[in-house]
Automatic annotation (TrEMBL):
Protein name: Helix-turn-helix domain-containing protein
HTH cro/C1-type domain: residues covered: 8-62
PROSITE patterns (UniProt xref): HTH_CROC1
Keyword presence, DNA-binding: yes
Organism: Arcicella rigui
Length: 327
């Protein structure tokens, strides 16, 4: 079960509502609400906003925070009314699914079907094919990437296919390393085996480097200027809710986010950060060049220790005792 499914079920029961009552209140089918609560499907951003508005909380709280634990902490409320649910909340009329048969399917659908259903564009005039001449690399080339949606899966052979070019596995057990200064260059040439071979490399004893790559991270990683090592994600169905991934995109460059898979429902990924100052947003699978599941990271800084609930209670008791002695 995911955090968001547990939170929806908990808040519904807390307000004494059946699945039928609550699904009608937010304008969706009862079966879809059941799928949300059993973690068989993820609410899209519009439904998350409606659910958060009904319960007087926020989208980030629904997907990041175990609300059951928050309610057990004195002094924190969810903004509920005395009748259980916030009153005078305007619920938008239910919208029909983009593709009802596709949304209810539990089996991974072909990438071609995803593109057909969600990324249909006006046909362009047919241009006669010309022989492609080798392109000479120039400093800071414009990003020209093959969308992740058009990529074929990785076979057991010695190369990873991506469009018309390919790049070999790291058969020498060394991990290619992409510096932040090379982000634009990497976006323009990541499909080329010769470019990948030209990158700096290093080895780690506990990482299987066959499908691994290292990226220098920015401020969206908890410890800036760290190096994150990721394992290549072959198919969108392998993207698991709530796990951390490194995404390579032309607009944002190299970003580190917690990902929620909405591909089967609407062809997008919901990206969230544990940093409350970084807002969550959706991104089309068509706008992603590569996805890497985070395996490890290297940093010169040591992580800050987390303050446990028991330690926090102990500090409060000590402070209260000192205040009483001063009276």
């Amino acid at each position: 079960m995911s955090i968001v499914s547990n939170n929806i079920k908990y808040l519904r029961r807390l307000n004494g509502l059946t699945q039928e009552q609550f699904s009608r209140r937010i304008g969706i089918k009862r079966s879809l609400l059941g799928a949300y609560e059993e973690a068989r499907a993820n609410p899209n951003l519009e439904n998350l906003k409606v659910i958060a508005q009904v319960f007087g909380t926020s989208v980030d709280s629904l997907i990041k925070t175990d609300i059951r634990k928050i309610r057990e902490t004195p002094g924190i409320t969810l903004g509920q009314s005395t009748t259980g649910i916030m009153e005078q909340v305007k619920i938008p009329a239910p919208q029909p699914p983009v593709n009802e048969v596709f949304a209810q399917s539990n089996e991974p659908q072909p990438i071609a079907q995803i593109v057909k259903d969600f990324f249909q564009e006006e046909p362009l005039p047919r241009i006669p094919q010309r022989e492609i001449q080798p392109r000479v690399l120039v400093p800071e080339p414009e990003p020209s990437f093959q969308p992740y949606t058009e990529r074929t899966s990785i076979s057991s052979n010695t190369s990873i296919k991506n469009g018309g070019d390919s790049y070999p596995k790291n058969t020498d057990n060394r991990i290619p390393y992409v510096k932040r200064a090379l982000t634009k260059d990497y976006l323009a040439n990541y499909q080329k085996s010769e470019y990948i071979k030209s990158l700096s490399t290093f080895t780690l004893p506990f990482i299987n480097s066959d499908k691994s790559r290292a990226f220098e991270m920015g401020s969206d990683f908890p410890m800036p200027n760290s190096i994150v090592i990721g394992s290549y994600v072959e198919h969108w169905a392998n993207i698991l809710d709530g796990k951390f991934y490194v995404l390579i995109t032309p607009q944002q460059g190299v970003i580190y986010r917690r990902v929620y898979n909405q591909i089967k429902v609407k062809g997008t990924l919901l990206l969230s950060s544990d940093d409350p100052s970084i807002p969550s947003f959706e991104i089309s699978l068509k706008s992603v060049a590569e996805i890497w599941e985070v395996q490890a990271f290297i940093s010169k800084e040591m992580p800050e220790p987390r303050l446990s609930l028991e330690r926090a209670k102990s500090l409060i008791e000590e402070l209260s005792l000192e205040l009483n002695q001063l009276k």
